[in-house]
Amino acid sequence: MGDQIQFIVEKLNQEPFRKNHNLISFDSLEPLQLLQLLSDVLGEIDPKHAVDIREELPEQTAKRMLTLLGILKYKPPGTVSDLSAFRQGLVTGSKTVIHPVLHWLLQRSNELKTRAYLARFLVKLEVPAEFLQDDTVADFNKQYEELMEAFKNLHKEHEQLKISGLSTAEIRRDISAMEEEKDQLAKRVERLKKRVETVQNHQRMLEIAGQLRLEKEREESLAQQKQEQKSQLFHAEQRLQRAQVQLKEMQQVVADSKPESLMKKLEEEINFNSYLVTEKIPREMESKKTSVHFLQKVVAEPAMTQADVTALESERDEVNAEINQLIEKRMIKYEPADSEFSMYRQQASIISRKKEAKAEELQAAKEEMSSLERQMEQKSSQAHEGSEVLTEDEFKQYVSKLRSKNTFYKKKRQEIAEITAEYGILQRTQELLRQRHQGLQQQLQAIEEKKGISGYSYTQEELERVSAVKSEMDEMKGQTLDNMSEMVKKLNAMVAEKKASLAPVIKELRQLRQNCQELTQQCDEKKMQYDSCAAGLETDRSALEQEVKGLLEECAQEESNYRYMNCMKRSLEIQLQRAKEELKAYMSPDPQERRRAVREQYTRIILEQENLGKKLRDKQKVVRESHGPNMKQMKMWQDFEQLMKCKRQCFLKQQNQAAIGQIIQEGGKDRLVL
């Protein structure tokens, strides 16, 4: 619960709330303030709920919040009775109800904003069945549902585009590039059409070309199917070969082996499997169960603070130290008696550990061998995919074919070299002829300039080319005019047929149009009446609402003034009562009553303080007069203390020297005795 409140406070202190709460101030909020805070959070998720709860009734506030929480799919904990308690707690602003709601809302605010936005358009408006009997209402309802489905699809596409990361600039560039490519392809198609239309029987040739393309596509699909069937056949042959190899190996094993060896292998395998089943796997399962039980126990416990963790660590260290001490005591106690048995125990534990390690190594080796076999099969299938395993004779034929192809390749390479040399000669000849042609053109231009007819040859060539183009265009125009005339005739005939078939329908449509106009006029009249009535009622309602709002504000203002005046009156009455009591006590002839008066009390306190000040001034005077002699006496005592310290040091030094001399004398006497 503390982590939950801390999370709520951190989120509320961030943008866009900026509440500046701490744990104490948040926990001390009143129920009305908590409800307002919840309303602010809901208003951030859905702007329609950003309202002041003081301006609406508590029932309206609870209904509004429950509606939005239902749209956001908030599930309060507990049963049906808990749900009623939840509603009651939401109305009264209970902390146990509002804190979990705030934590849930702030934890997934972005997701809830999207859900609230979609709810504005996807919460279906329920229309009563009797209104759907009207065709107009039914059509509008159907259109409404279609628009809702269209909005769903558009929102999904929008989210997918946001996730895909495509920007509008990239899309526009792609569209412009595609449009340019489309224009180029259209121009190219037009040029090809013009070029093909000059050929005789071009329509027949186009049909044949289309059939050829279809046949080529069919040929490609058949070739692909053939390749797939070949690969399937190859895989089947590979599986057959592997099965044959395994069969031969098993036959050899059966032929070479004896019943004793087979039984020995089976016994070894059975012993290994029984060891795994009876010892290794149960021990591992037990350890896993204990770890799971421990983890479940840890999860079931409440959240621990740093102080709890530190206390547990210190307790763990103490327990470990105690265990080590007990182990040392046990070793000291039992080591002399059980030295031989301890050696055997150590050997047995070492052997059991080696046995477990070897069993794990064997199991890992088996798994590695199976994985390597699978990899070998995959690699062999990838290496031989699309090919066949060649025998010795086929390999020799393949080598001979390769040699013949090598000689053929060398021959063709020599021919290519000769053709390349000839191409160079022809290119050089073309260059010489081009230069000669340019020289002749220049001479022809010079002669034309001398004769005064410059550009004659170029004009003649252009005229011939234009005449050829003109003849082609005339032919195309004639064909186009014929096609257009035929098309116009066909269109006129079709129009006449359509007119004849639509004549009765048009008559019925005219009658229906008249009925529609009459119904539309009636609908407009009814609508005008409804609008005028609704407008009058709306104006009356708005006026009443304004009046009620003004009266409520006036009532609240008057109530606040009344409460303020009552408070002021009460405070003045208390002050007046105190003044009367003071005057009564001061004027009373009884001395005990007079002493209880405030004036007498303050007078007595003043006298006491004046006497105390007089005593302190006298004491200060005495201290000032005795300060000099006292300081001198303190200095004499300090000198006396230092003198006594020096005497003590001298005495100790003299005593040490006397002790050393006595020891030396005793040592000399001992030597003399020896």
Automatic annotation (TrEMBL):
Question: Which superkingdom heads the taxonomic lineage of this protein's source?
Answer: Eukaryota
The record's subcellular locations are:
Cytoplasm, Cytoskeleton, Cilium basal body
| Keywords, alphabetical | Acetylation, Cell projection, Cilium, Cilium biogenesis/degradation, Coiled coil, Cytoplasm, Cytoskeleton, Differentiation, Phosphoprotein, Spermatogenesis
Q: Which InterPro entries match?
A: IFT81, IFT81_CH, IFT81_N_sf
List this protein's GO terms for biological process: cell differentiation; cilium assembly; intraciliary transport; spermatogenesis
- UniProt cross-references to Pfam families, sorted A to Z: IFT81_CH
Instruction: Cite the residue spans of the region called Disordered.
Output: 368-389
Question: Which residue windows are coiled coil?
Answer: 137-253, 409-450, 481-561
Recorded GO molecular functions are: tubulin binding
List where Basic and acidic residues composition bias occurs: 368-377
| Nucleus in keyword set | no
List the GO cellular component terms: ciliary basal body; intraciliary transport particle B
User: What range(s) does the IFT81 calponin homology domain occupy?
Assistant: 3-126
Query: What does the UniProt function comment say about this protein?
Result: Component of the intraflagellar transport (IFT) complex B: together with IFT74, forms a tubulin-binding module that specifically mediates transport of tubulin within the cilium. Binds tubulin via its CH (calponin-homology)-like region. Required for ciliogenesis. Required for proper regulation of SHH signaling. Plays an important role during spermatogenesis by modulating the assembly and elongation of the sperm flagella.
Similarity section: Belongs to the IFT81 family.
Please give the name of this protein: Intraflagellar transport protein 81 homolog
Q: Which organism is it from?
A: Polioptila caerulea
Q: What is the lineage of its organism?
A: Eukaryota, Metazoa, Chordata, Craniata, Vertebrata
Q: Which gene encodes it?
A: Ift81
